[in-house]
Amino acid sequence: MDTKIRIYLADDHQVLIDGMLSMLKTNPKFEVAGYSLNGENLVEDVQISKADVLVMDINMPKKDGIEVLRDFATKGFCCKVIILSSYDDVKIIKEVLKLGANGYLSKQSAGENIIEAINAVANGEEYFSQSIRDRIFESFSKIPQQSYINEAMPLSSITERELEVLKLITMEYSGTQIGEELNISTNTVETHRKNLIKKLNVKTTIGLVKYALKHNLIN
């Protein structure tokens, strides 16, 4: 039998916890390891539960999600973390990703996306719900062309076409979709992606998105 993904839930609303418990327990791949209604002692509780994935509200009594992430960053992450929030402020998204979160779900879409998100982060990927990706792209598209040139040395070599490709990558467009959007071949898209990865010294496509966040290509 395949090993189940152990999940720990943290939210100050019992109704939401109950809803997620009901949904997750119907999936044979998942095992709910426990839950908390506040952030106090959450790091220790998650460690004891041996959870693989923590789904955590950003607003909680006693200790909020940002503080919990800082605790994890100090003590060492024992699991993947998905932030669950009513906020789609890109500054908050940037902060939690810099602190080590692996995913960000809006509460409005959690019911539709939570299973997909858990599977993604458990497999080493990062996950943004569609509304969050939209907010990231919206903020990205507002950056003046000149603003990225002096941000960091690697950015100075990015061409306008590569920046267009990078914007669409943040939207999780496939190579084919990017090619159709920009009227270029899939091979050309792949060349731009590889050039971006090399120029920005990252390892994966997700690394490109995180680089854009870190260096304020997305405000």
Plain-language structure description:
- The protein is of the alpha/beta class and 219 residues long.
- The chain has 2 domains: 5-129, Rossmann fold; 143-214, Winged helix-like DNA-binding domain superfamily/Winged helix DNA-binding domain (Arc Repressor Mutant, subunit A), CATH 1.10.10.10.
- Helix content is 49%, strand content 14%.
- The protein is built from 10 helices and 6 strands; from the N terminus they run βαβαβαβαβαβααααα.
- It has helices spanning 14-24, 42-49, 65-75, 90-98, 110-122, 130-141, 160-170, 175-182, 186-200, 205-214, and strands at 5-10, 30-36, 53-57, 80-85, 103-106, 127-128.
- A 6-stranded parallel sheet has the order 2-1-3-4-5-6, sandwiched between helices.
- Helix 1 links the parallel strand 1 (5-10) and strand 2 (30-36).
- Residues 143-153 have low confidence and may be disordered.
Keyphrases for this structure?
single chain, about 50% helix, transcription, 6-stranded parallel β-sheet, 10 helices, DNA-binding, transcription regulation, Rossmann fold, about 220 residues, alpha/beta
